[in-house]
Design a protein that fits this description.
Blueprint (H helix, E strand, L loop, with lengths): L11 E2 L2 H8 L8 E5 L5 H7 L5 E5 L3 H11 L4 E3 L16 E6 L5 H10 L8 E9 H8 L9 H9 E9 L4 E2 L6 E8 L9 H11 L8 H8 L4 H5 L13 H15 L1
Parallel strand pairs: 2-3, 2-5, 3-4, 5-6
Antiparallel strand pairs: 1-8, 6-9, 7-9
Length: 262
């Protein structure tokens, strides 16, 4: 009997209706599939029924990796590693269709790593179908001028179109988490704001949202050395708060920040 490990944020998806909904979001047949955190293989085995060309799974838990190898080893490639330590750009020559019931304790870290590692237009995936705890999903899909809007929203919406599929109740998992979950669908944007280095967007948003309830003036001055030319150029009122600026304004600010540093 496999027991979920709290330390790895494990909650195994067992609800067949939810599994069916997930695998019907996109066409799987003849695609190269990557699944993150397959656990006991409930979603994995259902994906295999849709005849993918290839299936790779990343499972950190050795006991679960051995179980998957025993049950599905001839049909899938199992990588028994920490997903945060893997270079996803080297997993496959072509683009992958990615599924993941992400461990709640590192879900935002995984998503941010993937976004920051996208090489310009060279997306290593054609779409992401990911499960998050609902409060994290709400932050990812939030718009400016809302309480959930922040760094995660700005980073995620930079190169990706995002759609919420549905919420999932705790009884769909074993063991049952104490909170609701949400399934999100991510698709690469054909056209996105060009920046030299994604790390600059990460740094700028970190500084702006460090004190999200305070006015923009202090973080702006920290980044632009008190020079208000950029604020004037972008018509930014520095008496506003970080959540009052839309996505595009943060991307334009990052561009100006890069110009200042070059």
């Amino acid at each position: 009997m496999i027991k979920a490990k709290k330390s790895l944020g494990q909650n195994f998806l067992t609800d067949q209706k939810v599994i069916d909904k997930i695998i019907d979001i996109v066409s799987i047949e003849n695609k190269s599939i990557l699944e993150i955190g397959p656990g006991t293989g409930n979603l994995t085995s259902n994906i295999l029924k849709k005849n993918p060309k290839k299936m790779i799974v990343i499972e950190k838990d050795l006991q679960l990796a051995e179980l998957l190898n025993k049950n599905l080893g001839t049909k899938i490639k199992i990588i028994n590693e920490d997903v945060l330590k893997i270079d996803e750009n080297k997993l496959e020559d072509g683009r992958l269709t990615v599924f993941g019931n992400l461990p709640y304790n590192i879900s935002t870290e995984i998503l941010c790593k993937w976004i920051l590692n996208i090489k310009n237009e060279n997306f290593w995936f054609d779409c992401l179908i990911l499960m998050f705890q609902k409060e994290v999903a709400d932050r990812i899909v939030s718009e400016f001028n809302t309480k959930n809007y922040g760094r995660l929203s700005i980073l995620a919406n930079w190169k990706l179109d995002i759609k919420k599929i549905c919420d999932v109740k705790p009884l769909s998992f074993n063991p049952r988490p104490k909170i609701d979950s949400s399934i999100l669908f991510f698709k690469p944007k054909l056209d996105f704001f060009p920046l030299k280095n994604s790390k600059n967007l990460e740094e700028l948003t970190r500084i702006f949202f460090m004190h999200r309830r305070k006015m923009l003036k202090k973080p702006y001055n920290q980044l632009f050395n008190g020079n208000i030319d950029v604020a004037n150029k972008l018509k930014i009122n520095l008496d506003l708060r970080p959540q009052n600026l839309n996505f595009e304004t943060y991307y334009k600010l990052t561009k100006e920040y890069e110009n200042l540093r070059s």
